[in-house]
Design goal:
6 strands; mainly alpha; 62% helix; elongated; two-stranded antiparallel sheet
Amino acid sequence: MDFDTYQSPFTWRYGSEPMRKIWSERNKRILWRKLWVALAEVQSEYGLVSKEQVDELYAQAENIDIARALQIESEIHHDLMAEIKTFAEQCPLAGGMIHLGATSMDIVDNADALRVKQSILLVRNSLAELLLSLIELVETYADTPIIALTHLQPAEPSTLGYRFAVYAQDLLLDWDQLAQIDAAYRGKGFKGAVGTAAAYTDLIGFDNFDRFEEQLSKKLGLDFYPITTQTTPRKQDFQLLNALAAIGASLYKFAFDLRILQSPPFGEWSEPFREKQVGSSAMPFKQNPVNAEKLNSLGRMLAQLPRVAWDNAAHSLLERTLDDSANRRTLLPEAFLIVDEMISVAKRIIQGLVIHPNALGKNLQTYAPFSATEKILIAAVKKGANRQELHEVLRKNAILAWEDIQAGKENSLVRRLQEEKVLLDYLSSNEIEELLDVSSHTGIAAKRAKEIITYNITINLTVADPPPKHVKIIYRSKHFSGFIQLLRS
């Protein structure tokens, strides 16, 4: 790496090596050449290209010479034509037949579609591993009572597994949406300068075109849009970016919740902190939630990208304008690299997440009894108490107990109610204590948390073997972890 010039953080800091390779300059040019070879191979069946020429193109398809291509580009100012000329120099017999009948976007947009499909597969596999780790937390803590929060204020008891199940459910929705995007994502096909395929029909005949394009689709493992302009519909970029941003939103919420719960007033969770990790340059004792903050930072950027894709779709005037080209060079790769990094960081947090049982129990016992006063109200009314009168008694005692908490004292609600004469006319001291036991006042939380683990789902699995192979697997899982294991295998 040349550190004397600007390097994108995505070049070396954020994102995985496999994702960077998909969006590398080399992989792009390999895919361009793959498309040219496929085009020539199919054209050879119509007598336009000889077998010897196709063989030569195959032999040189991965002999990428970026330095030579950039040298040519500096003279002609067209990156795709520079690659054609570079490829042609390496193929003296077949060079003159490269790109026959095609326009630039027949190559660029189909190559981008292949890279998108490769990237979606990588994201889905990584997301599957993240979900597996999250489901393990759901299983472990399905029955662990906690105090739930609304408006960042103590509300009623729930379970920790149920809270984790909320994140899992969001990511399951994201998984499903991304699977739908993957199934529907298509390339331009080979339709020339304005989408009419006029040059191709001149070459092979009008009646042969449908079969010609179908042959290319099968060879590349990529479905094509039946109707295009010079480019694929830019609306599919917008749909893709929304799906990626949705994953970012789910991980953003998890990270933001973690930052709140790691703060000392709560102290219930904390992200893993490595032995030699430095939390602050000025305050050696600090253990900041830096990974959760990274998720929020990257998620904030990701959330803006669908707007760029919207503009590209809405401003794609008539059959084509070039005002999307420059931003798409970074829009697609950086969207995937951000999601890739966010999933990787979230996986690291979830797999090493530290749960503090003492803090969970303390917060539960401090705040949860207030929510159990309704149980006392109902129990006493069933024994003949006046509902309105007793409601006022409970309200006054709850306020006094809350003031004790605010003053740093223990929650005095149980003691106060056990001493309340109006209440003791209907309930014994032991009954009051039992009714204020909040550990079982969690409703459906544990049950529903466990049910998401046995969530039934139908999936379509895409296998990477560039070009991708669409292996349609209809698999109903009786156990969610089994579904994840299938993907991992």
